[in-house]
Write a structure and sequence with these properties.
Layout lengths: L29 E4 L5 E5 L2 E5 L4 E4 L1 H4 L8 E4 L5 E4 L7 E5 L4 E4 H5 L4 H4 L6 E4 L5 E4 L5 E6 L3 E6 L18
Antiparallel strand pairs: 1-2, 2-3, 3-4, 5-6, 6-7, 7-8, 9-10, 10-11, 11-12
Length: 174
């Protein structure tokens, strides 16, 4: 028996947005969809939220963010957006979009956790199915896991260096 195979026709709609549409800068560092369906865009000139119709800009000057150069965006189980800038724990900003609150990493976790990131850049941040946020600092042999119910955990991975996160398995191994 043989069956004829036919390719399905797929039509994609692509729209381009720029500064003329309300985006704060043409250079986009990161795009992230939060648990409420908003699209967050990190640029060198601030954080942008897209609701499907238009943009709202968030900046250091207007909204109290710690920096404007947003490199990476993630969301924890409590709805806080984790924003990273170019280097280390001094450039990790937590922003709660519903409350408009801004916290530095040190305000949230204390100065003792400053050594967790040092001057490392955070190239990867992923959220697991249980809401835990996973990060891998550059030039590090560690993984960082944060969940509001268990706190911040630093996991040393022996024998490896410069770990990159691509996928989080749903298996509960920690």
């Amino acid at each position: 028996l043989t069956w004829p195979l036919a390719a399905q026709e797929y039509i994609a709609k692509v729209e381009h947005y720029g500064v003329e549409n309300g985006l704060s800068h043409r250079e986009v560092n990161h795009i992230f969809e939060d648990s409420r369906g908003f699209i967050w865009i990190g640029t060198p000139k601030g954080l942008n939220r897209f609701d499907g119709y238009g943009f709202r800009q968030y900046t250091k000057e207007k909204d109290g963010l710690l920096f404007n150069d947003i490199q990476l965006i993630g969301e924890d189980a409590d709805g806080w957006l984790w924003l990273t800038g170019p280097f280390g724990s001094d450039s990790i900003c937590l922003y709660h979009p519903e409350r408009g609150e801004v916290l530095s990493f040190a305000q949230k976790f204390g100065k003792s956790f400053r050594a967790v990131f040092g001057n490392s850049y955070i190239p990867d941040m992923l959220r697991a199915d249980d809401g835990a946020l996973w990060m891998s600092p550059s030039n590090s042999k560690t993984l960082i896991r944060y969940h509001p119910s268990t706190g911040l955990k630093v996991i040393l991975v022996k024998g490896l260096g410069n770990i990159r996160l691509n996928f989080i398995s749903p298996a509960k191994t920690f």
